[in-house]
Protein: Dipeptidase
Amino acid sequence: MQQKSLSACTTILVGKKASLDGSTMIARNDDTFHAVAPHKFEYHQPQTGQKGQIVKSWLNGFQAQVPEDSYGWPGVPNVDYKHEGYYDESGINTKNVAMSATESTYGNERALAYDPLVKDGLDEDCIVRMVLPYVDSAKAAVQRTGALIAQYGSPAGNSVLFSDKNDVWYMEIVTGHHWVAQRIPDDAYVIAANRVSIQQVDFDNPSEFMWSDGIQNFVADNHLNTDSQGWNFRHIFGTNNQKDRHYNNPRVWFGQRYFNPEIQQDPEDGELPFICRTNHKISVDDIEYILGSHYNETPYDPLQSSETHEKYLYRPIGLNRTQNSHVLQIRNNVPDEYAAIMWLCLGYPTFSPYLPFYTNMNDTAPSYNDTSMHFNLKDAYWLYKGMSVLVESHYKEFIQGNIDFLTECRRQFRAVVAQTDQAANKYHGQELTEFLTKQNQALVQTNQTQTLQYMGELMTQGINLSKLTFDMDKNL
Structure:
């Protein structure tokens, strides 16, 4: 449990009118405590009439029965789940409902004194399995999660992302039983990073907010509202400490700085806004850049060549211990049958590509779903991790080549998506699922070949960069 409880992620949410093509998008880096924690990408088939099924946590005493009918969905769990828990992390079900869980979030000691965390409650290791296969909208996903927290309690502070083609919701579970969820406005975006983020809650607007039963009385009875006016969820339940100022707030600052460079803000400011708007239409590329960022082109970049105190002051967004990074996109400009794409990166998001997977699939490629616990280049996890290590080993010399490699990957991926969309009109039902599955797996094979070739180039260049060299007579 400790390994994941010390984990920390970064979240981005985008409403459909804020995006470049009218998509809703939810995205997150899955960051773990250890740099090596192999993950796989697998597909769970839909089920009907499967009575008595139990979801069991390998980390605490939680277990619960689930409904007998479920939708199909892909997940990105740990390989060693019996020691580390499932942690499926993210997926989009066959109803085009997306879920990403969780962003570790820390409630303050005042609130936790009156509603402590529940040791054997529903934690992030099982939350995707308990919710995503059984919901047909983002709002229904919030409601099911809230009902489960009311029934079983939560052993940790967790924030959860949900979306469908119309709605994006962000839910913050801050004590054993209390939570608030806010619908992200269609024309807005959000950056969140390991602290309570939601601000003013409007209890007269249930279409935009949802909350745990009795939360207003809980706050009033225990004198938790520190503001003389308003009902600021961040102030009531959140923290504002040194860790926030150096570990959490700067990541939010950098994301907002990227989308709104015209606004001057302090990286350590604890009042950075939750709901944000920009004149820039947000693309998948933008989200990938932020999720792989390390305070690029600022004094806080740890990869800069000069040695300064500032370069190590703040925790970057993209890390070596990011086990997977994902953008869950539900498009509104194509038919529902192939509208959902899961952009998945299994290497460092700073140096590795995000492959687009149509989630109307019936399987994933063996290099993704059969991951070894130890280094093996046949596995996507190890392939992209290995490539990332090579790039960082000679960052100054390799970074431009890596930028060129990722740029070409993005070009190819978008061309493949456009071609697949056009061809998909010929298929329906199971034939369409088979076609999209084959397209996914063909892209995996193509990029695997390209990445191995690129790694060979890096290794060859690296040989010539060795310090074990000297100017020598050509005849020696």
User: Anything to note?
Assistant: The chain has 13 helices and 16 strands. The first helix runs from residue 2 to 5. Residues 399-465 form one domain.
